[in-house]
Amino acid sequence: MTNKMLGLAGAVLALAFTAACGNKGFVKGGKVQDTLNQEADKGKFIEAIGIGAADPTLPTETQRRALSRDAGIVKAQYEMLSMVKGVEIEGGITVSRAMEKDSTLEARLKETIRGAEIVKTEFTKDDGAVVTLRLLKKRLEQMMGVKFK
């Protein structure tokens, strides 16, 4: 990861949980809304959002937006991983607990989350980005070899 990307990490705002399917968006009038209605579990999917910001001194809008989007994706992936770790699976244990017993599970989980679908990217007037990711629950279950409760 480059120093520029590491610098972006400090500018990324965290939003845990997710956007509801069919949500008209989180950005209105070029600004992130004051209230974001979110739900992590959307039936067949787990969704997460991330808000990213770039260095405002970058010379072009394209550079600022590209870096903001990348930062938003990374943040949404992190939030999704955090959410999935708390999910309860059959047998009454959490994914986090299952990861303690299977050392390869975390790597497989991270790889699956990196492959999550980017549903929407919204840009703000200051070139920040709100990114919505979603992941099919069945895909997670198959990858992990478990059934979610």
Structure characteristics:
single chain; about 150 residues; alpha+beta; four-stranded antiparallel β-sheet; two-stranded antiparallel ribbon; 5 helices; elongated; disordered N terminus
Brief overview:
With 149 residues, the protein is an alpha+beta fold. It contains five helices and eight strands, in the order αββββαββααββα. It has one domain.
Question: Could you describe the 3D structure shown?
Answer:
- The protein has one domain.
- 40% of the residues lie in helices and 22% in strands.
- The longest helix has 25 residues.
- The relative contact order is 0.21.
- It has five helices and eight strands, in the order αββββαββααββα.
Distance between the termini: 36 Å
Radius of gyration: 16 Å
What is the H/E string?
HEEEEHEEHHEEH
What average pLDDT do the residues reach? 80
Reading side by side through the largest sheet, how are the strands ordered?
3-4-8-7
How much helical structure, as a percent, in the residues?
A: 25-40%
- Please state the structural category: alpha+beta
Q: Assign an overall shape.
A: elongated
Total helical elements: 5
Largest sheet: 4 strands, antiparallel
Weakly predicted, low-confidence segments: 1-22
Q: Please state roughly what percent of the residues sit in beta strands, choosing from under 5%, 5-15%, 15-25%, 25-35%, 35-45% or over 45%.
A: 15-25%
* Topology, number of strands: 8
Number of domains: 1
